[in-house]
């Protein structure tokens, strides 16, 4: 009889102790929900919505961009043996992707700091006069592009770099240029590039940009590219 009583008391004590432990654990876990995110170090990371949220708008802008080159067209930036800079050749596909990346960057900058905007590869393009035009060439990078600062009809364009295939860590000499139209859409104005034979210095047009002509793909005898 005495053995049965001791056994019953031991069972009740063990059960009570087992009930207390989960209760404390539950309270502690629940209390974590009221702490700052910086305090709770074991929370699951939240998904990053920034890229996904701006992707649809950039896609819409890209679909409505007119004048984009054929994907198989080419843009060739000549080499400069005097400075050791290599030639760069881009396809229409490369150009289209750079235009889209420019739309993406524009959406990202809507919530960026002034420092981020300053460091962004997306720049304003005013089609300014050359410091040192090529002989017989245009006085501006894009002769067919009109810019009236502050005007909604001919606003500043957007300038976004093409990739440097030879040295991805360095900027390339080429840029894609787009401009917003009166209807609110964008139009592709062309590809421009530095004259790679020029070196830094006052009066030699080192920062001038010149249009890179597009070479359209040839048609075969069957009528296909």
**Helix share of residues?**
25-40%
Give the CA-based shape. Answer: globular
Largest sheet: 5 strands, antiparallel
Pattern of helices and strands: HHEEHHEEEEEE
Q: Give the structural class.
A: alpha+beta
Order of strands in the sheet with most strands: 3-4-5-6-7
* Radius of gyration over all CA atoms, rounded: 31 Å
Q: N- to C-terminal separation?
A: 100 Å
Low-confidence stretches: 16-49
Describe this structure in words.
- One of its GO terms (molecular function) is hydrolase activity.
- Keywords: Hydrolase, Nuclease, Signal.
- This protein is an alpha+beta fold and 225 residues long.
- The protein has two domains: 46 residues; 166 residues, no CATH class.
- Helices cover 30% and strands 17% of the residues.
- The strands form two sheets. It has a five-stranded antiparallel sheet. A three-stranded antiparallel sheet has the order 2-1-8.
- Helix 2 crosses helix 3.
- About 15% of the residues have low confidence.
Outline of the structure:
By secondary structure, this protein is α+β, with helices and mostly antiparallel strands. The protein has four helices and eight strands, in the order ααββααββββββ.
Topology (elements, then pairings):
Layout: H1 2-32, H2 50-63, E1 74-77, E2 88-91, H3 92-108, H4 114-119, E3 123-125, E4 157-161, E5 174-180, E6 186-194, E7 209-212, E8 214-215
Antiparallel strand pairs: 1-2, 1-8, 3-4, 4-5, 5-6, 6-7
Helix pairs in contact: 2-3
Brief descriptors of the model:
225 residues; three-stranded antiparallel β-sheet
